[in-house]
Amino acid sequence: MMYWLYSRFIEMAAMDGTQHRQVDVSSYPTSLTVDLQGKRLYWSTTTTLESAALDGSDRKQLMTKSDASIKAVAFLGGHLYYVDIYSRYIWTLNPSQSKPTPRPVGPAIYGYISGIAAYSSQEHIHDAHPNGSCGIENGGCKEICLSTPQGPRCACWIAAKFVFGDACSVTNYCVNSPCRNGGTCVNRKGTFECICLPDLYKGKGCETAVRYNYYQYGPSQGDVKLKTDRGFSCDMSKKSCKSNFLRIPKIQIFEGRYTQVKIFTNGYVTFGLDFDSRNPVRLNQEMLSLTKRLKAKTQGITMMAPLWTDNDATQGDVFYHIYDLANAGSTATDLARVQHAIAHAKEDILSSSDVSVTDVSWVMVVTWSKMMPRMYPSDRHDSPNTFQLVIAYDPLRYQTFMMYVYKKMGWDNEYLIRPSSLGYISSKFEVNFLQLAPSNKSNAYNLHKKNGNTGRNGHYLFTVATGSQEVNYDQMCYNWMRNELDRISTVRSYWRRTLTCPCDLRLAKADGRWKFDRKQLKLTGGQRQCIYERMPRGFSTQECCYTSSGSLISTFDGRGGQLFLYHPRWKKLHERSDVTPKKWCCQLSDNCLYFYRVRPLDRCLGYTPLTIGWFFGDPHIRTLDGFQYTFNGLGEYTLIETTYGNFTLQGRTAKAIDKNGAERDATIFSAFAAKDDDSDTIHVGMTADKDGLVVFLNNEDMTGWFNSSNVNDDRDFTSILITKTNNTQLQVTFKTGFSLTIGVSAEQLDITVGAPDAFKNQTKGLMGVFNGDATDDLLPPGENARPLSNSSSEKTIFTDFGELWRIQGDVDSLFHYAPGESYSTFARTGFKPLFIEDVLKNMTAAKSAEATKTCGDNKECLFDFAVTDKAEAAAATLETNAKNTKVAETLSNASPNITVEAVLNATLGVESNLTVSAFDPDGDDVTVAMDSGPRGATFDGDVFKWTPTNMESVNISFSASDGKGGVASVDVMVNLCDCSVHGECQFDQLADGYELKQSFRVVQCSCNKGWEGDYCEADFDGCQDNPCTEGTNCTDLTAADEVSTGRQYNCSKCPPGTKKDDDACYPINECDPTDPQHDCEQICVKQKIGFTCACEDGYRLKGNKNCSEIDECAEGTAGCDHQCTNIDGGFNCSCFEGYTLNEDLRTCTTDANSDTAEECRKLNCAHGCKQNGGAYECFCRAGYRLENDSKSCSDVDECLTNNGGCEHNCTNLNGTFSCSCYDGFQLMSDKMKCKPCLSGTWGKDCQRDCNCRDSDTVCNVTTGCEECPAGFTGGDCHDDINECDDSDNPCDEHANCTNIVGTFKCLCHVGYTQFNATVCQGTSRSTTMWLIILNHNTQINSTNKHHRHSNIAIIILSYTTTAT
């Protein structure tokens, strides 16, 4: 059978799923185990252990433990083992006992235990079923054997289905998950098949990453598609575009760090600044001038433009995908995609740059897919452009890389010149820009065929942040927080188990469960005091912090407390999980608000203080419910015993000694012993001279440790914490929440007990029944006992209550006994004490008067004075009682509550109001005050009023006091806005430059139409995004005009040959075949402005419009061997008789068996012969002439006549000629005329690209690059200049010059050091000249360089000489 947990049920079934049944256990089990031999089920809830028979009958509860968190159980050898994560122990108990007692197994375990298993080879039970066993040859099954009541049953997985029977002879090859990188395994006969993620991985196990020259994109890759026609665009004159920015982790680009990126359909992205323009400009000073508007003055502009041009956003798609290892998604597919993209980026970077190592963990891919130019429908002659921007970021090194990847560029720029700009610019701090050479040139649209700066076609790589030694704490915080969010439910469950913070510092000091963090007190100079639990129930504790005035800090600015996931006692875990992350997020970066999402702040909601009682003097007792009585028993007694044995406190008394050393019939406490259910046992007594403490832990003497420890030193033991509060006092804190403070004074012990509310109605003993009702505190032991009346006499209390709580022998005792001692050593059952009423009645008048001087009318003090005749003992009784009474009053006095809006949204020049109210849970009068506020603000105790007059930072806080020490305070977050009269305040959007953690923030404005600026103070400049086409002027409209017309600007009239479309001027297509507006005879060719005419093949342009037929035969350009016949638009070649025209349709071959062949052999013709009038004669091929011997042929130089018809150069060849063009031109289709090179190309036949080593310079079509970067020369700037040439050696005579590609280096001679790049200097020596002015002829002998005497002045002058 198999058993499992579901909701509040234990379910069971045979291994093949039959015989299923369900047992309702009416709770929610956390774990389950089976005792097969004993045939019992055992399970746990969070706080109980339970058992039942295998069928769910005979249910029993073995243990209840209210402060436990049981997570796992196991059974072995007749014992049940379980894990309690809050005690840090594995426990065991014997379930066969009538009242099983748990015992810890081994030492404490400092870590989270999520499961437990127990195994013994001797107790391993084999299937003894008569029909066979799954343990013997797997029951005959090939794959899975299931034990059932009828015997083994075979099963397996086939085609993702669980089946039984003979079909299970097929082995499941997918059982071990052989497919990697998100691949899906499909079981096949005798093997398996991995279905890999398409276009990402391949191989039998999907182990090989697929690489392309571009990054995979599109919906199949999980990309996000931009939804608006113009990408993330909006009307800047109406609403802020901040919300349209894509938020990203803070990445470094040159000197700036950005958290927002905006993607535009026109082929570029911007960071931090919105700039939406269809008209590209050069990414240099021209762009800087354009953006030096109001909105760019403080930010500058940062733009990455793989291809900024005027795209038609209605055609094509724009995708983006962020691959982040810190947020890789929840599925194997998501993770595989992230790993693939990041590995791809790393390979590109390492193979294409000087970078030797990078830890890129964040990659963003933006893809402009199948983008078309913006033009009229009839003009769409292009194929689309597809290109990518890839940003790869190494957050720990602040390294950022940018790649431009051109997959396929299809625009026909020869047909229509379209402006473009490629490169990047950043001007937030320092100006950095790069204008790629193809910008605004025709080869911008064939970059996929050209080598980029990586040496690969269509691939460019730029380092836009070289890295820093500075640690990126934003990223450190971000990565940590992502990991924490993955286990947020666990973190919050720990938080719910921690104690609630005391509401003010007064309560924190009185509540013994809390420990003060003196390190924080020292660090803040007393301005902030923080506490945490002394002994938490689990790993975690709440930190609570208070102002110097005592108010709990509840703001999210890093000053307040937090959840400590690990108590400070676990120093390394605490430092790593709590302290260091807070530094990253709150001190070293601006992410404190997010930090508190995973380390919650406590606001003292639901705080319940400890309730205290105390034993003092000649035993006087104040119960937890506040009843006070005196009990002078002699022996060992139970002071507190909880119902379930969770906590026990015992006290030992001894006879009181008077000032003469004589024993009296009264007692004092001489020792206390205590433990909770799983703690060590502590015994605290007095030293022999009764002025110090002795401490035993589990009978081990710890007195030496106590005496040698410093005040406030802690020591952690099993579920118990001991703190030395001073040399004669210690505090003991138990995991159950009980707190004991034990001290010695005046030769007697006193103890203060703190009990948590969780133990109400669970205590009995001399401390009484803790339930808030003092009338039942005198409850004797026994099931049917009834409490004594509080008005009972001391004698009755002694005999009918106190003496009944005497412990019953060594078995019950928790005390330490010295050798020869036992329980009976201290048991004095026949002892009859003095009683207060008798002592005070019989006290002499003189002694009564003396006692009254010390005690006043306090009867406990008077009794102690009368019995011991010691004023110091009586005074100690009085002082202890008064001190504890004050603490009890403090704990019972609740802090007031103060209510006010947490956030004040204020506007410059407008009065803001806040209503502040407070009440006290105890009904005390409350006073409310404004602790801090802005200048000019008023507060009358109820209403706060303030009219902001400037944008200076302010703090607003209020406090409430009940006059009894109870205080509460609150800080108000101020959102200040100044949108003048031209905008609306966006109080939920932080203005640039302000941190989330600040209590004062300036917020953004949403400007009305026609206005812009941080405060909507400037008329919106409609021309700032360069909206008008080149060649037209932009006129900004006033705000009033924008409102009335709905426009932001006007563009001037379009230039001739263009027409307007959506404020852009596009060339009129005079060549449109559906509406021709040209007078070309044959072909119309569209130009940027206007058109030109061209001719079909076989025709030549005559004038500007008409075409004339080319007579290739006459011009000798046909290339016919024999005969050439000109036809309309071309020509035909033919052969003389006896020859055959070859496949090239130009050359001829002699027919070997023809008469012509025979006759030609007789004539010995150089080229061939033909029949002419019945006779044969020699002829020459075209381009040759027949010599006088009528046989030989000589070449005709066509270039001598009219330059062969060539426009530029004519070169004579054997039998023909060729035309060529000057540099900067290329031959046209007629092979004679020349046309200038298109932009972006230069040189012979326009074969060279204007790369100019990616410099932004003029490219001359004839000579190439006019200016090259320093260190390079040549038409394409690829030739290195040898700066070390003897004729122009830049180094001085004391250095050797070494040429380096693009530069040089001067290496100094021996004995010289580098002064600057070109100059070396010799080793310096310093000569010092002393100028001494002495008054009164005083002499001085000093080696100091600067010396002043009352009548002496010394001036030192020094100079440096250089060795040569």
TrEMBL record:
InterPro entries: 6-blade_b-propeller_TolB-like, AMOP_dom, C8-3_MUC4, cEGF, EGF, EGF-like_Ca-bd_dom, EGF-type_Asp/Asn_hydroxyl_site, EGF_Ca-bd_CS. PROSITE patterns: AMOP, ASX_HYDROXYL, EGF_1, EGF_2, EGF_3, EGF_CA, VWFD. SMART domains: AMOP, EGF, EGF_CA, LY. Residues 469-599 form the AMOP domain. It holds the Pfam family C8-3_MUC4. GO terms for cellular component: basement membrane; membrane. It is found in: Membrane; Secreted, Extracellular space, Extracellular matrix, Basement membrane. It is a single-pass type I membrane protein. One of its GO terms (molecular function) is calcium ion binding. One of its GO terms (biological process) is cell-matrix adhesion. This is Mucin-like protein.
